[in-house]
Specification:
- By secondary structure, the protein is an all-alpha fold.
- It has 4 helices and no strands.
């Protein structure tokens, strides 16, 4: 694995861990695609740091479980004009 990829994987993972960010939010901050972030944290990170990978995975699973709530809030806000 190239060094810049390894560095990005660690930076993205740290960001997700510190801020409980979604894949979409992390992708926006690091100016990469959602697919890249997802591949970084699900495939590359476990090969670099297994413990960190499990922590990040738990945050992403929580975000996925709450996804329907965030979508509902966004729809409510859209139609209430706020």
């Amino acid at each position: 694995m190239q060094e810049y990829i390894r560095r990005r994987v660690m930076e993205v993972s740290s960001y997700i861990l510190e801020s409980s960010a979604t894949v979409r939010q992390a992708a926006q901050v690091f100016d990469v695609s959602k697919s890249t972030v997802h591949k970084d944290v699900t495939e590359r990170l476990p090969r670099i740091d297994g413990k960190l990978a499990s922590k990040v995975r738990s945050i992403l699973e929580l975000n996925k479980a709450e996804r329907h709530i965030r979508g509902g809030e966004a729809t409510r806000k859209k139609y209430r004009g706020g």
